[in-house]
């Protein structure tokens, strides 16, 4: 009987988790998040925010390309490929701090080389329908051209490259991706010389096949990325606190609030969401769209880490206006990402309720950014903690179950949804 149970259990597919090679590769994100956060330490001004956005998305896109490769290749993943990618991303991270001056060329060269490498790792004829950037690398072309121009045109070319990638992810559905890949294969076939004595035999073009990501495994990788980014916030808080000679009440209130905010975000993103995105349910968004939303959300979290470090550093006076707006703006962006993730869950009648639930958090964060600059840092942080905790405590219920007024009074009693 026991043998029969063992044989029956052995037929069930084993749940796959991130491998040691993937976890080691993700260490480069730790360094990258720290370097990217430094772009926002001084100010930041609108130009700093724009540069941060472009550079962060370039870094995230590079990581995502190789994360998708490891997800699909699974046990066939080549460790050498991940190590090369890790070294290239380390070069990108080391170049971030001086990306406007001496190391911009190093950053661009590493980025373009890794984008090309991420497209070359796939077998001929393999079409990654869940990550269109694997076969459509037009977004890297403006970066390559930027090597031959000066600023500020160089930065505009970088932004153009990122915009092309975003548009590709937004419009490249499965059918469109397969059709475009088939058209490209047909053009290559038609451009070959005809077989004959002068040219020799011509091999048939490879048959196109779909490659799909493992949603559960990729969700774990995206969740781990969120944890790494939140860890950068912890580092910023500790570094700022270590600079204070006197550990008094305001420092304790600010530090505890900052830590509580990160813990609340971790709970909301990982226990009440999917892929590290709050309120996102499995299978609601196409993988390419969910990953794009993940890029935007984590970009806000890296900015939040910088602002929290600045808040702890300025416990004895008012937080500088630029850092105050960065703190509240980052949280507004985080709440907005949760709103975008939750909207597809509801039918037309429930969307009114969803907007009434999510918009107050976004509106409060924006109002706090514009009107709350005179508040002490600890007060601002605790208000943001209350907003996140309200979203954790509130239970939306199943779509269409009960009236919005009834759901307004219902709190979560069920176990958290795992990522």
UniProtKB/TrEMBL annotation:
Keywords: Membrane, Transmembrane, Transmembrane helix. Residues 407-419 have a biased composition (Basic residues). The keyword Transmembrane helix applies. Residues 181-208, 399-419 are annotated as: Disordered. It comes from the Bacteria. The keyword tRNA processing does not apply. The chain crosses the membrane at residues 49-69, 81-114, 155-172, 222-238, 250-272, 292-312, 324-345, 352-371, 377-394. Pfam families: LtrA. InterPro entries: Low_temperature_requirement_A. PANTHER family: BLL5714 PROTEIN. This is Low temperature requirement protein A. It comes from Streptomyces durocortorensis.
